[in-house]
Every structure is written in structure tokens, then in C-alpha cells.
Amino acid sequence: MKLEKNDLQELFSYTELPDVFFTEYINNAPGDYIKVYLYMIFLSKHGKDVKITDLSKMLSLDFKIIQDAIKYWEDNGVITKKNTGYIINNLQEIELHKLYKPKVALSADAIKESAQNQYRARAIENINNQFFQGLMSSSWYSDIELWFKKYGFDEEVMVALFRYCFNHSALHRNYIQTVADAWKQNNIKTFNDLDTYYQKQEKLSVLYKSIGKKLGYTRPLTQYEQAYIEKWSMDYGFSFEMIEVALKRTTSKANPNFDYLDKLISDWHDRGFKNVAEIESFLASYKQKKKDVKELEKKTGYQNYNQRSYDNLDSLYANFNL
Fold it and tell me: In the structure, what pLDDT confidence band is assigned to residue 104 with cuts at 50, 70 and 90?
């Protein structure tokens, strides 16, 4: 394939990259794809006719990676396929078209001109200054406007969204949208909603660690184990002390798993228990009933199967330390 540069610049002994490559493309592209693109730019200066197999050898990358990289840059409009090879497109020209395309991209000045968007404009400028060092590219403005409409976030939540992604070293569009989707699913729109969500997550985090420690786990809990705990705490409203009753009394069961714990705690929830005292009272009553049944059987030699199937609890509490 032949590589050509889509401009009339003189040939120099160095290879130039526009700043827009760093603001728009480098964050989302895999490292090997960037490597391929940079080498293609270098070769395009001289109009080199090069095969994909040659690129694979020169860059020490698998043939498949070279193919995927070329397709990635083609899909993003950075290169254009032609009969003889590819044209390396001018990134500045691409951004210029985005900037002036009607109803698609908005500049900071265009947003500020609207009186009703003054507060939002300040929030976007805050994002620009805090997380992009004042160099946020034009396409981010239209993306942020779109996210305001899609998620219904207020300005403080939008700034918090960028801060969260920035602090996690993941300030790129896919990650931002993933976090935004999660916040929307938790009905976050205002900063108060977000604060409540953070408090909930902090409470759950403490609960995860406490329960894992009680069970003697040295590993982090899995996503599925955390889902059980979230159900007990958030859906059932059980305190750690109520959950701990189950943790303490399953010591006689070999490797008590979360499915077994969930059956116990769900049974207590179905019975409407609200505190440790109610659970303890039920367990004491159940223990006494079992004792009475055994004494009756011993005296009479008669097994009352209806009695022994009291609420079908025998199997559930068979290994429970009453």
C-alpha cells in the first residue's frame, strides 16, 4: 500500500503532529494503534509504498494488530482508504469541519452568548480549566451539552463527573459515559443526589470489609457477593449487627457461602424482623420447639412429621448453631 500526506508542505527532517492529536485522539486509542499511526505519518512524508507485512516486521507487532490499527484509524476518519493505499488526513482540517458544522459542535463563545446558559457555560469552563489546563478541544463542548440533555445532571454533578474520571486517570469519553450511565441508574441528577449516593457507597464499602473480615476472607469480595450484601443492607434494611447473627451462627457449617447466608437472612426479612432481639427471640423459640418435639418423640416413640416440618425450617437450620 502507498501512503500519501494530504497537504503540500515541504519535506523536513522531522515529523510534525498537530496538538489536536493529543487533545482528541490519543486518550482513546490503544498504544499499539498509536505506534502504527505515528509510523504511517513518518512513511507518508516520503510517499513510501509499504506492505502491512513490512509494518508488522518494522514495528515488531502481529499482523492482526496492524490490520486492526489501520481499521481503527480509518473508522475514526484519521486515514482514508484509496485504491493504491491510504491517505493520512489532516487532523486540523477534520476539527475545523466539526467546529463549524451546524448544530453539531458548539464553541465556548457560542454557549456564553445564550443568557440562559450562563451558569452552564461557567461549569463547562470550570471543567476546561480544572481538567484540560484550558486546552479543551471544541468537540468536548458539544459532548458535554449532549450529556446534560441525556442524563439530566445539574452543573455541579457534571463537574463532579469529570473530577471523578480525572481522579481515576480515565478522562476519556467511553469511561465518562460509563460512569454517567451508572449515576443515572441510581437516579442522580442533583448534587444532593450524588452526596446521598456517595454516602450509600461508603456505607456499603465498610460493610463489605466488615463481613469479609468476619468470614476470614483475605481476598476482596466478588461482585456477586457484594450484590448479596447490598440487598441485605439497602433492600432489607438490615444492620450489620443483624447480619452478624447469621455470620456468628454458621460456624458449624463447612465453608458457609453467601447463597446459604442469603437464604437465612431472606427468611428473617420475610418474617418482618427489624432488629437483633426479634431474630434472637425467633431462634430461641425455634430451638425450644425442636427440643420439645424430640422429647415428645423420645417419650412416645412417635415421630410427628408435620411437627418436624415446622415451616420447612429443618433443612435451612440443619447446620445452624442454635
Answer: very low
Distance spanning both ends of the chain, measured CA to CA: 77
Q: How far is CA 39 from CA 5, 50, 66, 111, in A?
A: 13, 11, 11, 38
State pTM to two decimals.
0.53
Distance CA 257, CA 215 (A): 10
* Contact predicate 200/234, CB 8 Å: yes
Quick check: 265 and 279 in contact, CB under 8 A? no
- 317 falls within a domain: no
Residue 262 lies in domain: 195-312
Helix (H, G, I), strand (E, B) or coil at 88: strand
Contact 221, 212 (CB under 8 A): yes
DSSP E strand stretches across 203-256:
none
Q: What phi, psi does 79 have (nearest 5°)?
A: -130, 155
Maximum separation of any 2 CA atoms in the chain, in Å: 108
CA distances from 129 to 83, 176, 296 (A): 44, 18, 79
pLDDT grade, residue 194 (50/70/90)? very high
Is residue 320 in a domain?
A: no
Using alpha carbons only, give the angle 75, 76, 82 rounded to the nearest 5 degrees. 55
Domain boundary at 96, 121, 139, which?
96
C-alpha cell at 248: 456468628
Last residue of a domain, one of 140, 155, 189: 189
Q: Is the pLDDT of residue 127 over 90?
A: yes
Same domain, 307 and 212: yes
Provide the pLDDT for residue 319. Answer: 65
Q: Give the cell for residue 302.
A: 412417635
Give 33-87 pLDDT, tens digit per residue.
Answer: 888 888 887 777 767 677 788 788 888 888 888 888 888 888 877 788 776 777 7
pLDDT of residue 308: 47
Check if the beta carbon of residue 15 is closer than 8 Å to that of residue 41.
Answer: yes
Cell of 172: 476519556
